[in-house]
Structures are given as structure tokens and as C-alpha cells.
Specification:
By secondary structure, the protein is of the alpha+beta class. The chain is built from two helices and five strands.
Length: 94
């Protein structure tokens, strides 16, 4: 029987804002579950989004793009990690 696995999806994205909304967008991003701000300059945020599926990341990015003052929210990179459990239920990195 195959060992159960858990997939973790991690994506980076760039969020561009209108200057008057940079602070409010930053506040909204900081409150979002699974979102981490890694940098901000000139009205643009570099963020990391974490979730359990590509769809979850896409839903989060769509929500970000709908925030007032967001000009664009673009995924830059996505990576998937699998965590497997062996027969003794110890967790291993794949």
C-alpha cells in the first residue's frame, strides 16, 4: 500500500499597487493566512503564498488582485514539496 503524502505548494508573487493604496494593501496582505510579505519598494510587494494545492494559491492570488488599489498580482514561481510518512509514521522529506 502506498505511503500517505502531504503536498505543500509555495509560490512567490509580485503585487503592484496604486501609490495611495500601498499602505492599506500592505495591511490586508499582512492579515491574510498563508501570505508573507518578503519585500516592498515603490508600491510593489514581493510575497510568498503557501497552501496545499495550486488551486488554493490561485484563489489567494485572485483575492489579492481584487483588493482596492491593486493594479496587478502576478505569480512568479511555484514549488511543490511532498512530505511522506514511512510505515512507522515518521515524517520524511521527499
Amino acid at each position: 500500500m502506498p505511503n500517505p503524502t502531504t503536498r505543500y505548494h509555495i509560490s512567490s508573487a509580485v503585487v503592484a499597487t496604486m501609490p495611495a493604496f500601498t499602505a492599506s494593501v500592505g495591511g490586508a496582505l499582512a492579515k491574510m493566512s498563508g501570505v508573507e510579505i518578503r519585500g516592498v519598494a515603490n508600491g510593489k510587494f514581493v510575497i510568498v503564498i503557501e497552501g496545499f494545492s495550486t488551486g488554493e494559491l490561485g484563489t489567494t492570488l485572485t483575492g489579492i488582485s481584487l483588493l482596492e488599489g491593486v493594479i496587478a498580482a502576478n505569480m512568479v514561481f511555484e514549488h511543490v514539496e511532498e512530505e511522506m510518512q514511512d510505515d512507522e509514521r515518521r515524517v520524511q522529506q521527499a
